[in-house]
User: Fold these one by one.
Assistant:
Number 1:
Amino acid sequence: MAFLYSEFFEKHYKVKLCSCICLFWTVFAACVIILPYILAYMSGGFWLKQDVYYEHPEVNFRNDLVLEFLDASGRSTMYSTVKEINDMAGSHQMAPPLIKMRRRDNGVNGQMEHLRIDIEVKGYP
């Protein structure tokens, strides 16, 4: 079979700039070009070389306390808020100390920043 002649055929389609497909194409191109920069900026930077992370631990005081007193003569006495420890140590002769506890939340975030415990011993035999 012999080939005698060929002619190039070209067809053009024209679309108005105010059409839906033109608007869709413009929004898509803008998202492809601009969206990665916005995501990188919002995530904290392109190449993060150094970062500091602070952790606030959850600290709870369970109201269990063990105190040991040492007087000038070298004698020690122990007191605890747990009855079983007092029974083991035999510290029934000592008057219970006055224990005051204050929790302080400076950041008003529900986590305790400061815990102050004041202990006042009344009678020491």
Number 2:
Amino acid sequence: MFDSNEETCWNSDQGATQWVLLEFPQEVRVSEVRVQFQGGFTGNTCRIEGCQKDEAFTKLADFYPEDKNSLQSFPIHGGALVRRVKIVFENSTDFFGRVIVYTLDVLGDKV
């Protein structure tokens, strides 16, 4: 998912509400999320949440990917400063609720 190798991926367990948690070494201002799913295993309703190191997560944005294999991009407005980011996949196009991600990029600026 982070190694730029198209042959590796992250796959969730089955069931609703799967997530990926990222922690940064310093504050960042997230401006965009890019994600590439395996078609048929796409998150339908997704959100990005963020927080400082020891705080509760708050929603930064909702996003709604298409069920396809290509890289998709979602702008994040608002400019919140965060140390931790959680990408939440509330449901999936897969009957069993599985999600498969080949690429996940969180873009922004160091603060």
Number 3:
Amino acid sequence: KKTENLHHRRQRQRTDCTEMSVELNPLSTAKGKRFECEMCGKAAMLACQHCRVTYYCGHEHQSVDWFGIHEKICQLLGALRTLAPTLGSEEERQRRNLTIQMSQHALIDLCRNEAQKHMVAGNYELAVPGALQSLRFSVKVYGNARIELVPAYLLVAEANLGLKRHKVAEEFLLYANWSALKNPDCGNELKSQLHRNFGRLYAAQGRYDEALRQLAHDVYFSSLESGPEHIDTAGGYYYLADVFLLKQSIEHALALYDKVVDIWYKFLIKLRNRPSEHITDYLSEASIGEAAEMLRKILETRQKYLGDNHIATGESSFALGTLRHLNGEFEQAAELYEHALEVYRKELGENHESAIAIQAALEELDADQPKQNKSTAKQQDKAEAQTL
């Protein structure tokens, strides 16, 4: 059924994009001029009818690009790619160059954020266009073999890793590694991310010992950058645990999952005790989604190997529930809190401080829901007023 729904969605998207494209006429193309597909570099047959400066080999690639990133940057691309080659004065040229640089920097961030959102949602195919655009604009802004290209290389590699295109992912990881080696000033954060992606690649290829070695380096550099108890480092522990799970070393995997949950639990509880602050002050939407996915998988693993009523399973429910609560997902948070409370009361007793803490979280959740409803209503009223 899922495959059937995906097929229908792609058919609908392809139909939508058919109405947004124009066919290229080879006879009207200047001699020696070759239009290339935005996605694969092959000879283009179509152009976006809106910007008229983005080309595709067929409707399939136009559809992926449109829903992945192009619909958000179409107008900007049109403006950037059709700039007049010369202007009247030096002052005008400087002003134009500054505008171009600012637009390109903004597009790097926009494309990266969109790609990350798609990856968190598991839509790796739609993440590829944004990742590629982020890389293209990074090359234009910074030049080749620069350290600033590493995040974009990693993004493209991660999207292809999600699609199980291991050779392509490894190719971009090697580009990233080469850029890092060429720049001795490469920071610990980038080194951490580079080793993490190599670790994930090797794990997907079944090269578990190499994966563990890379992920150990990830934890090391992340600890140097942020500390061993930081939420950024927790990602390294998580992927290490995943590899141990693949090796059927359950005890090692569960121990590392304990570390991940403990780090996130402490961070989230501190944040919940600061009502004037919001989770988005510290984490991007993509980071919140990634954290939720990690905690969800840990909860499922603990349920499988420890049981639904184990205290560690209740702890996972509490941590994930707190994240959902802080992110305004009240219904999911309530279910997770209630499960955690049931486990804690059964295993520790109603008067245990942990059970009391969860009961307080549920009461706080009940109080927060009317606040969100009022805030949502105000936003809707504001939007309607602007429309009028």
Number 4:
Amino acid sequence: MSDKKGRRPTVIISGVGITLFTLLFGFTNTTTGLPWALVTRFCSGAFNGVVAAVKAIVSDISDDTNQAKAMVVISSAFSVGMTVGPALGGALAEPVRQYSDSFQEGAIRNFLEEFPYFLPSFVISALSGIATMIAYCKLPETRIKHKYTVLEEEHSADSELSSASPLQSDGRHGDTQHAAKLVSVHYNVERDNVQFSSGAKVEHDQGDNDDMEETDNDSGINNDDHGLSQGSDQSLDISELKDSENVATAPTGGLWTRVRKGSTSLRKSGVTALKTSRMWTMLKSSEVRKVVCLYSIFSFAVIGSDEIYSLWLSTQPDKGGLGFSERNIGISLAVLSTIMLISQLLFVSKLEQKIGSLELFYIGCIIIILAITLFPALASVTNDILLWTLLVALQGPFRLFVGSCMVMCALFINNSVERANVGAVNGLAVSATALTRAASPSISGSLFAWSIGNGAASIGFPLDEHFIFYLFGIVFFLSLCLCITIPEHVKRKKIM
């Protein structure tokens, strides 16, 4: 949508949808139940086109010298939202139970008791509404209108011609009463101020089962206003030909044959439309497939490692964890998030400009792999000061380069297509990675629980508490291997 209608309407419509369905989610209770929660969350997710559109905006307003810096700002803002959002939602959920002394008996208390998740939904919906209003008032349209490719235009014109022409495959086997005709059709297609001309010549032999020959008739194309080629004495208007060929084109064999042939024609038209669509064209590009797969695989590992980090911190030392309290876990997450935010803003864009985006991803993956495989060793440290020092020393670079690699993935996605398709490829990438992000927490949590239980007890190393960290190390290594296959030109934007 953002490539065709614009970035601004995409952001605004997405914001309105998120605002509305987030508010409706707040009416989830024991009466409405799980179906209401699922429907409202699904609808909210369906309107979540903001991320893809904002990344496309970054591509529109930046060049190769500052795109990384702009993407770092977007990534940092997203990280802040991911940190503050859950904390805010947890603080406001079930307010009567958490802050019973603050609510006196009355309608408000009764309402919040009946809908315990309305308050966080209302606050988040209000913030989303404010952001949408700001976008409506201040956000300019950044999309540059691009001309459609010649291939797309010629396909559209050919489809119109074939639907108007009576010389279908059924007609050439009928009892036609006409002699061979030579039809030359000249047409102009005008879209977005771009004109294309094409010609088609069709030969139809009487009483003959030979295949109809279709050839390009470039020499017969006229640029005058008559619309018909003068290359043959038998050239005639397409509408007249359609009227004269009704007998030849009438399908034979009864109603079922007609329905079957009609459904076959419809299916072929649908397949043709799919194969010539912009999305299919993008998917035929190997570099688009590679960068989307890279983003999905890397996101799977990042979400999974974040999931097990808190579990690992809270797990007792005899099970391979650090035995942190909830307070210490909160402090750890706050400190590391602050380090990641500041370091991203200060260093990522400079590193990208100095060593290159692909090279930064290579280095980042290597450091991430080394750090995550060393995490389990911290369980053997007994000194608290040394433990915190080593934890920050490992988690700091880990989170810095995780953020850096995510930014590089966003650059690869933007640079893998022409500017006219940036919105579409970002939508494709967000949709693909949504699947891996949804699956990763449950898979990683289940494997971690198994490794500190059955795995550690019956099998031992490396299928004990080390297993999940080594597994994600392998996934990060696969991301590195895939990135090595991506061509160098994804470092730079495509001109068109």
